[in-house]
UniProtKB/TrEMBL annotation:
Peptidase M1 membrane alanine aminopeptidase domain: residues covered: 232-444
Name this protein carries in UniProt: Aminopeptidase N
NCBIfam families the record matches: pepN_proteo
Membership in a protein family: Belongs to the peptidase M1 family.
Gene Ontology BP term (one): proteolysis
GO MF term list: alanyl aminopeptidase activity; metallopeptidase activity; zinc ion binding
Amino acid sequence: MRAEDPRPVRLADYRPSDFLIDEVHLDFDLEPSATRVTATLKMRPNPAGDAGAALSLDGDELKLISAAIDGAPLAADELDVSPSNLRIANPPRGPFELTIVTEIDPAANTRLMGLYRSNASYTTQCEAEGFRRITYFLDRPDVLAVYTTRVAGPKDETPVLLSNGNLVEQGELDGGRHFAVWHDPHPKPSYLFALVAGDLGVVEDSFTTVGGRGVALKVFVEHGKEDRALHAMESIKASMKWDEEVFGREYDLDVFMVVAVSHFNMGAMENKGLNVFNDKYVLASPETATDGDYANIEAIIAHEYFHNWTGNRITCRDWFQLCLKEGLTVFRDQEFTSDRRSRPVKRISDVRNLRALQFAEDAGPLAHPVRPQIYHEINNFYTPTVYEKGAEVIRMLKVWIGDDAFRAGMDLYFDRHDGEACTIEQFVACFAETSGRDLTQWMRWYGQAGTPEVIARTAYDASARTFTVEATQKTRPTPGQPTKQPVVIPLVLGLVGPDGADVDLKVGGEKAGPVFTFDRETLRVVFEDVAERPVASLFRNFSAPVKLSSDLTNDDLLFLAARDSDPFNRWQALQTVALRHLVQSTDAVREGRSIAEEPRIAEAVGRAFAPDETDCAYAAQVASLPSEGDVAREIGENVDPEAIHRARSELKGRLRDSLGDALEAAFERLAETGPYSPDPASAGRRALKVAALDLLAAGGARTGVERAHGLYISAGNMTDRVMSLQVLSLSATPEREEALADFAQRYGDDPLLMDKWFLIQASSPLPDTLDRVEALMAAPTFDMKNPNRVRSLIGAFGAANPTQFNRPDGRGYAFVAGVAAELNTSNPQVAARLLGSFRTWRALEPTRRAKAEHALRALASTADLSPDVADIVRRALA
Ligand code: PHE
Ligand code: ZN
């Protein structure tokens, strides 16, 4: 690790920029290894800044060719330049024009930030701080400028030349070159700049906005993959329409473009008018994509499109405010999906994901507030906390102040702040105004890290006809925050009477609820006129991101699982029973005792496979047990992943034994009949079929494995093929090897399908998995320079394989840390992300904990760690 701690960035130190940039004129002369960039910046001192300040521009690995002010070249003694900074001590004190020429090497750019090559194309990634790898700039989100971009390149290699905004000019140049000029009238921060050039295929369509603007829609993909872009195109149109209908937001340029690229550090990027996507989240056809792929593409297209208003029109003042755009935009894409598909199923899968990633992060050494106060490397704050918990905070706000005040607050926010770079305070103030509520305490959700733990007790008093709910909240210390204060928790609850109907809620002689404000350590609500003992259904629809434990008995929970009118809590109730059982079973495994019987779990799971079940997507969620990670989090400390795996496998085996016939019948009944369609109902049937198959094949049971193999071979769609392969991968059988070989044979040419093949093998709990993963790194289809390959093999091994990553011999830790060390220089961002699998290392039992620590310490002592990797390692070990 580097000797001294690099200086952190603190929210408290925010100061407005000393200079503003009103216009940016960029001229790119594309050459693979020596691209010339001429930037002409119309600048002026910022009245809100420091009047006599020097002009200090950000750079990153830049080579300056020349600099001039108002046309006069700057002499060497007038500027101070390094690859990471350009400083002009005495710039003009009025408006001026600064011209900077830099030379950059896209072909050598393996970090995939700034301008880089992916296959034969050029593309950019500027969020968060990539623009400074293109030219020296005030690379901060509160400097908004109008951009005009001229791109010139060879006609044969780069027939397509794109940038933000509208195309204003194009023409021929000498030497087989041509150019295009793009103008984006909407002022934007540099992180939203984009350029794409290459030989790409395109799918075109159009959309007419409510206001009558005709918008050309274009999706660019590799030649020959145009038919795989149609689903993305449909998703764009659906997103545009939805944002008009639900948020009143209209698109604002004549063209909206999406480009799919093969090399991308993240999922996708919302550059103004020119979204750049990881091709994994664009390309889909019935032959190549699973139901999950179709759903992801729709959601991510929507997410990036929705950023046009929440992120682009209104952006962030500084990077501490990242959740202002990300939490809000995740909330918006979740709502979009809920409206298009099943709302309860979407909620359940979002909550599963929140718990698996964000609750895990919040409980470990990398915990941080939704709005951090300090960072060393902003790239490491694109986290489940900023995104997913950020979205939960917005969802809670809506529940707490009500739909109307929420919608009015959004309208006010758009009206008031359009064209600005904002803070969370400015956003929240809009809702304080429309709801008339004091949101001071609300801000703790943004400032306080950690998942609040709620303990609820209930009591029925038959003679007084009252039912009391008492809840306490507590948040444990997190790094840098030893003491915590109560947060405002909207507790949505219902009381379910013995007949399954909700009891009318009456408190203090008046009709009450269903939203209760729980903003102190203890909340006590006494419900009146309750004729019979009800069962409390707490946190309906997961009304707050808290960890709940209650005194509800398994009988109560199983009653809710059958009768609660809230579909989320019907699902949750059975999960809670199963989770309690799995925690006890894990103890039993560790202590060498036999595992207790809990036949009622099978009974409840069995209902999901009943012949009259029509909501298959929901039933599939009911039938899916808590994950090994869920059990680990519930246990919390001294975790033995192997014991959890054995306990969970045992439960699956028992479910198979008691439900066998129903599972077989469901599997038969849910077989495909017509041609493939990714619609939610059909996808739900496939999900339920796979849930049945997964149980049938539990523990490598012969008939189940044979069925899985049969489905693999006869599969008429990629979902069946991939899911059956996944089931086969769980046990060591000849069918598994045969199917894996067949898959590689069939799809060896398709990188995205080979990613699924890597991922399935990397997440198998079999003991030889690590050996395989190491061997697969040498496969010709594997490529360390491609983040998707790295994530599908090493990332999946670390994040989706609890037993093998956590091998008791520590090899799993050493392996992942070793790959991170290897990627440290070539792509620090991807390297740092791989280390996310260490986020729960402190909760492990002592032997594994020591091995994990050893791997982290070895990495920490590596020379020349990048800021990205050093930051994660330092915090993980602190
Ligand atoms: N802003 C992108 C999104 O969430 C994510 C991203 C961050 C992409 C940083 C690239 C780099 O939509
Ligand atoms: Zn986003």
